[in-house]
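Priority: medium. Attachment 1 of 2:
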């Protein structure tokens, strides 16, 4: 996540999970190992996307409301877990319906992540006004990653001449 940001890895993981769920109904009954493989791939991908979604949600909220936003995300997540047994119960009508619902929801969620601003190497919003302006220069399809303006300065400051150490070659070139 430090190299590629948060949006695209989350999108890729959620699309893999959604595609795996949507492909499972197409697997013939005599090839159960492939269905198990797709199920494990979906579970791995959802877990991978889950780790970055909380970070992305926390970084897009302003400092003054960050914990409130994270709390609301947790409440909505817990409330949606109550719906899962009802979706699984739909298998009484069609055994593939829950897989298709979970797959479509994952695909929609992955595409929705593209509309969030990238937070890698960005100064995070501290006020509500800054949060409203945060990410307005990003397009939904952009892969643009900014280098943090202070990243090279911090390297030079931490590797300067202290206690007989020499300055790093990166700092000498500047």
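Attachment 2 of 2:
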């Amino acid at each position: 996540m430090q190299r590629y940001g948060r949006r695209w890895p989350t999108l890729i993981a959620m699309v893999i999970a959604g595609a795996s769920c949507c492909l499972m109904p197409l697997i013939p009954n005599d090839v159960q190992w492939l269905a198990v493989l797709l199920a494990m791939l979906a579970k791995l991908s959802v877990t991978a996307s889950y780790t970055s979604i909380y970070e992305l949600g926390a970084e897009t909220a302003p400092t003054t409301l960050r914990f409130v936003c994270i709390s609301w995300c947790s409440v909505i997540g817990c409330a949606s877990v109550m719906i899962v047994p009802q979706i699984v119960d739909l298998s009484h009508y069609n055994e593939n319906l829950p897989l298709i619902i979970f797959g479509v929801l994952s695909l929609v969620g992955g595409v929705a992540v593209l509309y969030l601003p990238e937070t890698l190497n960005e100064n995070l919003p501290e006020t509500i006004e800054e949060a409203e302006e945060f990410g307005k220069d990003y397009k939904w399809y952009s892969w643009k990653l900014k280098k943090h303006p202070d990243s090279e300065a911090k390297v030079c400051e931490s590797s300067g001449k202290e206690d007989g150490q020499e300055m790093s070659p990166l700092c000498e070139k500047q």
